[in-house]
Amino acid sequence: MTTPEGRHVRLFRNGRNQAIRIPRDLELPGDEAIVRKEGDCLIIEPVKAKPLRELLTQWAPLDEPFPEVDSLPAEPVDL
């Protein structure tokens, strides 16, 4: 049932956790979400993918030298 406040959904138990069935038209992308409580409301947001540049800045540099690569002549390519 849809009301001006939102969509009526069912809550159920999954082991010791309470769960919610999210209707197909409200599905979130990915397979993880962030849940937070604001007053009596639960806010569910998808986890946004981090840009590659941001991920790379979190990684520690390698202490290994980059291996030498023999230069090979370029091969012709038919396009």
CATH topology: Pemi-like Protein 1, Chain: D
Low-confidence spans: pLDDT under 50, at least 5 residues? Answer: none
Q: How would a crystallographer describe the biggest sheet? A: 2 strands, antiparallel
Inertia-based shape? elongated
* Global Rg: 24 Å
Mean pLDDT: 88
Structural class per helix/strand content?
mainly beta
Helix content: under 10%
Reading off the top of the CATH hierarchy, the class is best stated as Mainly Beta
- The overall number of domains is 1
Q: Give the CATH architecture.
A: Ribbon
Annotation field: number of helices = 1
- The neighbouring-strand order within the major sheet is 1-2
| Beta-strand content estimate | 25-35%
The total of beta strands comes to: 6
Distance between the termini: 57 Å
Overall description:
The chain is mostly beta strands and 79 residues long. It has a single domain, classed as Pemi-like Protein 1, Chain: D (Ribbon). Helix content is 9%, strand content 30%. It has one helix and six strands. It has one helix at residues 52-58, and strands at residues 2-3, 6-7, 11-14, 17-20, 33-38, 41-46. The strands form three sheets. Strands 1-2 form a two-stranded antiparallel ribbon. A hairpin with a 2-residue loop joins β1 (2-3) and β2 (6-7). It is elongated. It starts with a strand and ends in a 21-residue tail after the last helix. The model has no long low-confidence stretch (mean pLDDT 88).
Q: What tags apply to this protein structure?
A:
mainly beta; 1 helix; 30% strand; 79 residues; SpoVT-AbrB_sf; AbrB/MazE/SpoVT family DNA-binding domain-containing protein; elongated; Pemi-like Protein 1, Chain: D
